[in-house]
Amino acid sequence: MNEFVNNLDEVFTLFGPVHARKMFGGYGIYRDKLMFALVAEGELFLKADERSRGAFIELGLPAFEYRKNDRPIKMSYYLAPEAIFDDPEAAREWADRAYAAALRAKRK
User: Fold this and answer.
1) How far apart are CA 46 and CA 29, in angstroms?
2) What is the predicted pLDDT for the residue at 18?
3) Residue of 104, 92, 94 whose CA lies nearest to 17
4) Whole-number Å distance between alpha carbons of 5 and 7
5) Whole-prediction pTM value?
């Protein structure tokens, strides 16, 4: 694993233990076997849904996007705010929001 991914345990210390699994050239970030974030190209993206997406958009944070058959595909993960890397309370708040979105998606 890379150093950025290894440091996510420290970032999310107030949220609880997280672990990473390699996937598609990046990493899925999990808590209790539920993926709530991903790391791609050295950036952290958090799960969002219709209830939480506005908080990301309000801060101008873009959705994770990849290309398939020369077309952009947006996923329901948004770039994490920079504040979470310096503020454990902010990290917990955003991780809780992402985890709740992942739980809602799982129930559907």
Assistant:
1) 9
2) 97
3) 92
4) 5
5) 0.94
